[in-house]
Amino acid sequence: MDALLIGLVLLVIAVASWYAWQQQRASQAWPSVQGEILAARIERTDDGSNNPETSVRYHVELEYAYVVDGQRFIGTRIRITREGWRSEDEARMQLARYAPGSKLQVYYDPTRPASSVLEPG
Question: Using one digit for the tens of pLDDT, what is the confidence trace for 26-42?
């Protein structure tokens, strides 16, 4: 029974990884439009393992606006997969790239324009 459960968990992880990889590849061919950063901040997360060197991560959280075919969308993803840094300083260096009010290219899924990233691939 334990082996079956472990196998099932590994299968779910493999499928999720494959799906993320497919989305990353597809995003490289997505069209882009100009967007604007609305808000940017750093979020600190802790997995609760009581080891600050490995459990704490800092994530850049964004909101950006863009328009496709006359419809306004709000995006939040920098990349398909969420990045986290162990150092708050590293996260702040990333945050500096996304000052509120700044203009940048937004890459969107042409079949689902509400799905977007700032950095394809």
Answer: 678 899 999 999 999 99
Instruction: For 10, list phi and psi in degrees, rounded to 5.
Output: -65, -35
Q: Are 120 and 27 in contact (CB under 8 A)?
A: yes
Alpha helices by DSSP H, listed for the chain, are 2-27, 52-55, 88-95
pTM of the model: 0.76
Residue 62: strand pairing partners: 40
φ/ψ (deg, to 5) at 100: -55, 135
Amino acid at 77: R
- Give the strand order in the sheet containing 32-46: 71-75, 56-68, 32-46, 103-109, 112-117
